[in-house]
């Protein structure tokens, strides 16, 4: 086999299989958690705060200052995801060809600069331009972090770690709401409060990106925080993932396999349907709370508890998912809680503000469901080109859903926005059915593979057979090409 087709993990281990003690594995894991997780958690918190800054600014005077009317604010929420969709496949290819850490870091610097430029806008056209470009650069972060998590952690460690960095969306909601609440009280500054918000968030992101360019590793082989022995252990401990650490050769056969794998399109369908409500809520969250009868400043403050629910659910459901090694079950439970929240916002009269807020906060559990689907993609999609392709399809559908979402909240439906709330409840219910379909597809395929393995009469205890299977785990093969692989449910 051409060496260029092999994963760097196979080259780094010299093709040998090294026994790693539980103590050594745990020691290296702690070191990875201590150095890598904070990097991912911080930047994911920053990117969500940056993306959500439009939501906060809607209650800080941006509509009046930039003369936004009717549908224009809704389109500001949607155009961000036009940039996402435009750049997702190019960024998939670049992830395959460029060092992951450096490519991510450059994009962080660029989106921070674009966010700061929001403060210089004075009309709808300027905001549309900056929001679209911001979407281009932020399109790298989620698929990049899914790839990084799969490169560094075992299958039964990934849900919790992904929950940690995705949960930072909730932290960003809490902190962002409080910062916006404080800035909204500024009345004597030469700059409008919403402009200060964009400058503050944008410049903080630029500084973060510059640091990451120096420190963020591309993979285990150039991690500054690991010595040579620890790098080999870090690679060896993920062998049973049937994945390596990232081959930079683009393999068209893996791309086309991803296109004909039904799971790819089920993941995409899930992400599209689930993120239509998410897009509406992300852009109109403050407006929804405002529709319950709270004033603008109070609505900013009351956005914070939703962040706490988001964080808590992304810690709780992934923990259970890793413990029981079941993704779709706990993803489905989380999305049903979100569906219940949408139903409560529909049936409860506007005068009962407390129960309405409770329903709104329940919607935040939807993020935990999406987290576990991304873990499912990471666990079940083998082959580096195939993995980044499936991730891209899922993220494009995520962006399309978030593009559509703000359009479900029309100014003509104010102040109740009943149509938007009904769509939230209905689509979360449909999403649960898609999860059930994914589960059944994987159960059926696992049973088929079990039967084929029984018929083949291959002795899995034969040392030569075992050695060949272990070697194949670092050969950048897909899940279709790995008959001994079983799909996580």
TrEMBL record:
One of its GO terms (cellular component) is membrane. This is Major facilitator superfamily transporter allantoate. It is a multi-pass membrane protein. It comes from Talaromyces proteolyticus. Pfam families: MFS_1 (PF07690). Belongs to the major facilitator superfamily. Allantoate permease family. The chain crosses the membrane at residues 70-87, 108-127, 133-152, 164-184, 196-215, 329-350, 357-377, 422-441. Keywords: Membrane, Transmembrane, Transmembrane helix, Transport. The keyword Transmembrane applies.
